[in-house]
Amino acid sequence: MIETLLPGLFLRYNYYMAVIIMLIGLYAMIAKGNLIKKIIGLNIFQTAIFLFYISSSDIIGGTAPILTSDPASVYVNPLPHVLILTAIVVAVSTTAVGLALVIRIYEAYGTIEEDELIAMEAKE
Amino acid sequence: MIIDHFPVLVVVLPLVGAFVTLLAGWADRRLCFPIAMATTFIQFCISLQILSRVMQTGPLHYNLGNWLPPWGIEYVIDQLNGFVLVVILFLCVLTCLYSYRSIHSEIDEKKIPAFYTVFLLLVTGVCGIAVTGDLFNLYVFLEISSLAAYALVALGREKRSLVSSFTYLVMGSVSACFILLGIGHLYIATGTLNMADLARLLPPLYGSTVIQSAFIFFIIGLSIKTALFPLHLWLPDAYRYSPSAVTVLLASVVSKIGVYALIRILFSVFTPAFIIIEIPVMEVFCWLAAVAIIGGSVLAIAQTDLKRMLAYSSVSQMGYILLGIGIADNLAVTGGILQILNHAVMKGCLFMIAGAFIYTSGIRSIDDLRGIARTMPLTAAAFVIAAASMIGIPPTAGFMSKWFIALGALESGQWIFVLVILASSLLTAIYFWKVIEYMYFRDPGTRCAEVVSTARDPPAGMLVPILILAAACVLFGIFVSIPLEVIEPFVTGILGGI
Q1: Of A35, A49, A109, the CB nearest to B181
Q2: Range of the domain at A22
């Protein structure tokens, strides 16, 4: 198992990094009780996916995709970048909605700690 | 010709309508409802026209900005899309009509323009998912509809609606991230995002782990979106604490579009050759759906709150759709897709009735419904019809979809799922009979007498959509050939090669 994984680890370490960052985000979302920290976890999770896309399109020595007369020019696939620009917009709006909800929750309950919220709901 | 642009107009119209509603709301709040109503109604007419054209001339292709696929974004409408589009817009029109009276009593006056704006954005999102033939476009529309749904859930008057909306947001975003990862894997492996192009390029790559993990990401992401049984935890609270009109939208529009996306990805991006022969994933699907059907019903029996009971019953009924797809037999898939229509109609009707009880008397608990049929006769009668349809008593619509799924299960020799359907029908009968018994046969007693005696059938704006949906429960059972005419060509088209 380890023999098959190791060469890939050095060749494609960018994908492993993306997976590690993604898991850190997922951990934060599950383990942290503070709602703001959960949103930060969500952002880390999303950023890992953005890195995954961006690094997948990169070529060593590649340039910007501009039409030149040189047929041998190596350029980077621009489509993942464009897709991720859209995904960033989506992530920003998700964060905005999430933070707005956290503000409303704080106004309504006076706390943003998950365990305190659960305790308050159980009391009602 | 404007008629050629109908596939894109069905998405653009509510988007423009949303901004017009917002601007009009500044001038006069009373303008918002007519604008939203007109927009959804025109969309519904357009969707009917699209479906009739698809039935006559086959799938419609629309290239956005005249860029040829697979480079440009393509909107494709075949029988399944057209059918789903008509179903969800039918429900959107009725929900919009229903919301006129119900939402005024449930949210602050000054939030009315915001409600209709976000409502139209949600309609934009779901229509976009329904018409698009491009995977990344599907993800963007999925996020538009989900973000609108989070905001709508948070509009509820009780403060717990905020917490349930937050849970929904976290779960929904994670599921969307998984879908985005799946799309990324497919793009890296094939270099295209067009669904038809992917279906052409994928078969030689079916053995690749990249494709298989992409498939798993899609399944997990969409299972959270459709609240498949072990991943349904966000659903009961989101349904329970949102305003009545929003619950109707979530249960009959948003959940249906998630299932549609699942069917599209299972059968049109990955072909039956992959999901049935390459990875035996359908077996797993059937068992998960069976657990959802039984588990949802059992949990529904334990509930005392009417809306929460209906929410768990949704988990169970969505299991039928997935079971039909999972058996992957001509008849069962037909039944599963038929259930999209039937469940939208039945559950829409039931949640509208639950909202009507809250509107007229403030009753949320099943226990307080004692003897309410005396003062709200029409509402109670509609509830009985919709409940009969949920249980699956012929000649209602619910019977037809269960019948097809059961026939499909028998034909492919998986008789155990017939037992599951039978058992679940019994369990469904138990929890609906409890409500019917309280409404018709219990004496109000001293505790509920005052509330029950002052309750009246809701105003026409709410009663008309309830009665239309109750009538539809029976009509689609008797005239089942109308939806079948649309579904069957699609099912034979996708499963013909097996």
Answers
A1: A49
A2: 2-58+73-123
